Every structure is written in C-alpha cells, then in structure tokens.
Amino acid sequence: MSEIKKKYKQKLILSFACLNLMCVLFSSVGFYVLSMGNLKKNYASVVQSTLAETQKNINQKLEYNEFLAKNYLMDQVFYAYMQKEYSRYEGTQVLNNNLLPKGREMISLSKNNVLITLYIENQTIPEYFYHDTDKSAERSFSVRHISQIAEKPYYQRYRSKSGYLWWDQIDDDRERGRVSLLS
Q: What is the pLDDT of residue 54?
C-alpha cells in the first residue's frame, strides 16, 4: 500500500510540476510576445518623432537660407550696381564697398555653415574668391563671373527651369556633403 501511495504521490508531483511548468512557459511566452509588440511600437514611435524633428530642423535651415538669398536678390541697389558698366577702378570699388559687405553680412547672419559664391554677368566687376584648396572651409563668400559655369550642365538645367531658387548638388557637393542653392 505504501508503494502504491509512493507511485501515486510521484505521479501527482510529476503532473503538478508539468502543469506548473506549462503555466510558467505559456505566461512567459505571452509576456514576451506582448512586450516585444510594445517595444516595436514604441521604437517606431520614437523613430518617427526623431525623423519629424530632423525634417523640421532641415526645413528651417533651408527656409532661412532661402530668406538670406531672397534678401540679397530682392535688393534694388544690388540690381542697380549689376546693370552698369564700370572702369577697372569703379568695378573694384563696387566690389569692395557693396558686394563684399553684403556677402559678409549674409555669412554673419546665417545660423548655418554656408559657402556662398555669387556668379555675376557684369564682367566689369572683378572676381573675388579663395582658391578652393581648403576642403574643410565652413563659411566663405566669393564673387565669380558667370562665364566660369556657363557651359556646365547644371547651369544649363537651371536656366531652363522656371522660378528663381533651385536646390541641387553640383560639382563636388556630393563628396563634401553639401547642397547648393542656385538663384
């Protein structure tokens, strides 16, 4: 009789242990599945909010740079200087007294690192530029003649587009991680 009780007791303990193990296993798997679902949902939410914030920051920078470009382009004094023909001395005076201060003002007002090259059609105003040997330059202003880029494909594309502001990666912008605003 005691052996029957022992076998019955062992079977009872074994079945109870299996039942407990199954309950723990099912609840663990259920908890794991729920927690992973919540984790994925929260991760996606965090990624979406980070992406939205990054997009907002990029748009603010682009809008600010467009504002600076429009500020330069809508200046009637600037256009008046671009329409006249100058002697060599007068052209240098226009460059030093008008174009360069306005360009430096744009650089100093910009919240971003900007490299501004103003291409002009007026050949009587001299060019002003640094040799582009410093690949890490973050802020600069230069004045070049449009003839420097007249044959470039991006200039031809720009001339055929409507509107006066156009974002594009030109020349070595892609390698340097930059974007150009053509206007």
A: 93
